[in-house]
Amino acid sequence: MKRKMHVLASVVALTMALTACGDKSSNNTASTTTPAASASTSTAKDTITALLPPVSPNFQKNFEQISKDFTAQYPNLTLKIEPASWEDVKQKLDTQVNAGSPPDIAFAGSDSISKYVEQGLLMDITGTATPEMVGDYDKAPLEYMKNGKGLYGFPAYMEVHALGGNREFLEKAGIDWKKVQQNGWTYDEFRQAIKKGVVTENGKTRYGFVFAVKGVAAIDYLGVMAKNAGMPAAFNKDLKYAYTSKNYLGLLKDLRALIDDGSMPKELSSVDAGKRWNMFLTGQTMITGKGLATFENSAKTNNAKIKANDGSAVKDSIPVDYIVLPAPTFQGAKPSSSTVVDGYLTFRGKKEPTAEHKANVVKAAYFLASGKVAATTNNDLFAAGITQSGRKAAESMKIDRMPENVTAVENMLKNATPARPDIPSDLGAKAIKLETEVIVPKFQGLIAGEVTPEAMYEAVKAAAIAAFGDNGIVKD
Hints:
12 strands, ABC transporter substrate-binding protein, Bact_solute-bd_prot1, D-Maltodextrin-Binding Protein, domain 2, disordered N terminus, 19 helices, alpha/beta, signal, five-stranded mixed β-sheet, globular, 2 domains, SBP, 42% helix
């Protein structure tokens, strides 16, 4: 899942901003509807386009109703939604951006903001979003949608990339998962725990840990763990590239060791997100990653299908109590939970949009990211609300979550990686390019046993010096 932005928030400030009530002016009132953008009072007909993936399991099923509700609130406006899969949404968006004709709104990770800012087609809505809109959000997630002084959309949710465990297997291995949820664990503790989770029965092996790493998913694994290894972002506070640190080499060695231990499959490089989840539900691994809160919901749904003898349950799956677990910390580093803030980015074409169209795009982006739409989507994801209007709308919606998992997520959010809107867009774009061209293929090679940790580290260091200069990297 990640962030290049404007002022480095302290962990304390971030923690305060993540409290249930948020940090809001007393003049703001919660509502399940969205306030109109005051930047334009035009009643001229206009169409806003949006490219949207399946943000939650039922999100795309609601597209027709979402469009109807939007037009009911703004009779002169039409919200035209183009659905996309998670597999092709990025490619579709990049193709449209490169052609100079992006959609008005696209759902994407906040980590991609710097890249699109550099391409000149993201639309800064700082002067168009109304105070009521901005004030509806908790401060922390909104910071992730910024770069420099610009605001480039509205966040949909702020969640943590956690690990997930099978309660029965954890307890059979003697792992005190409640203690881990509360206090976390070090790499050494984690390494020993997943060794205990390896079991061979009837010629079949259950692994201690499996993480999806096929394709671009490899960077998720490395990114989640790097944050807990003293590198919460690609750049330190002095804007030096961080992945040339000795901690990075140590991390690469540690991650490779988990495979060499036999705690993870040697064929890990072939495991994609679907296979990872299938292995978890069919009892082939004790712990899986990366996990979001919605995985508990997915496991409960499959459990119900098994109980009802429903043929649509995952083949050969077993009942699973999904336990949220933090990622381990490495080399004495402090916990720094990998936060994921995705949202509705606002784009412009090659021509400057009219003030009226810009205001209409803001209305649509905010409509999608707040109130009833946000509440419905976040409840589907088991994600906490980040707007007053969303929390208000969610009060009447039922949600069945394990209390211990709720607390575990809250504990991780207290150590959430802060937003980094201070990282200039040009540095952020270079870091993404380095990640795509060097880190991802080298890490895939490391996972496959084709590249050593030392060789990958030296390749990343050489590429970093070429991109940022010898004085632009961390030397320790």
